[in-house]
């Protein structure tokens, strides 16, 4: 009869667990992967599939932190924050393109033609919706979703799982991205 101890099971699950929370954070904020039309169960299953497929390329240091360690809750917060940050970084580009569509629609006088966008839950103009749809298509056609997932898996080398969970925010500086949205949107809309 085959038997496993609790320590062995935790040692097998722990590396997958940290990567799973990071990938789940990405799928919560990424441009196309976080749309409301994709059910949560599909996102959770896809996150689990990505983690299982990426397990050989994950660093071996992930197994030193287990789910029953005193830092486990803060490590989960760290992993979700890193995934959200990577997804939000890609979302900034889409926001800049949609903002450019708003500016172009304003200059052309087309901002009166606004639609209810079920994906964002708000009003969006015709030009901004066109720009957002084209950007989404190009994102999928150029394998942006695959590059984003690969960047997240490589983020384990740049932002490893550590006992200081919010240390990565000093490097990433997400508070600067708001200004980048307006700057990029203005540059896209100038021509």
Structure, described:
The chain is elongated. Helix 1 packs across helix 2 and helix 1 runs parallel beside helix 3 (72-108). The model has no long low-confidence stretch (mean pLDDT 79). It has helices at 6-29, 40-54, 72-108, 126-141, 144-158, 168-172, 177-189; strands at residues 114-117, 122-125. It has a two-stranded antiparallel sheet. The longest helix is centred in the middle third of the chain and has 37 residues, at 72-108. With 191 residues, it is mostly helical. The termini are far apart.
Strand content: under 5%
The overall strand count is 2
Rg, Å, rounded: 20 Å
Give the overall pLDDT as a whole number.
Answer: 79
**Coarse morphology:** elongated
**Could you name the ranges where pLDDT drops below 50 across 5 or more consecutive residues?**
none
Strand neighbour order, sheet with most strands: 1-2
Protein structure class: mainly alpha
Order of helices and strands: HHHEEHHHH
What helical percentage do the residues reach?
Answer: 55-70%
Q: CA-to-CA gap between the ends?
A: 71 Å
Number of helices: 7
The main pleated sheet reads as:
2 strands, antiparallel
Properties at a glance:
191 residues; mainly alpha; two-stranded antiparallel ribbon
Brief sketch in words of this structure:
The chain has helices spanning 6-29, 40-54, 72-108, 126-141, 144-158, 168-172, 177-189, and strands at 114-117, 122-125. By secondary structure, it is mainly alpha-helical.
């Amino acid at each position: 009869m085959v038997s496993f101890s609790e320590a062995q099971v935790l040692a097998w699950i722990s590396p997958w667990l940290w990567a799973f929370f990071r990938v789940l954070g990405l799928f919560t904020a990424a441009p196309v992967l976080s749309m409301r039309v994709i059910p949560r169960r599909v996102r959770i299953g896809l996150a689990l599939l990505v983690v299982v497929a990426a397990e050989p390329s994950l660093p071996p240091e992930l197994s030193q932190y287990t789910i029953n360690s005193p830092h486990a809750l803060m490590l989960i917060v760290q992993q979700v924050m890193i995934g959200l940050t990577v997804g939000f970084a890609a979302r900034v580009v889409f926001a800049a393109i949609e903002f450019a569509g708003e500016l172009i629609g304003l200059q052309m006088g087309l901002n009166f033609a606004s639609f209810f966008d079920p994906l964002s839950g708000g009003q969006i103009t015709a030009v901004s919706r066109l720009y957002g749809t084209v950007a989404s298509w190009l994102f999928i056609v150029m394998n942006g979703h695959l590059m984003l997932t690969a960047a997240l898996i490589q983020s384990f080398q740049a932002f490893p799982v550590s006992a200081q969970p919010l240390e990565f925010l000093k490097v990433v500086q997400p508070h600067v991205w708001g200004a980048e949205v307006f700057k990029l949107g203005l540059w896209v809309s100038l021509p």
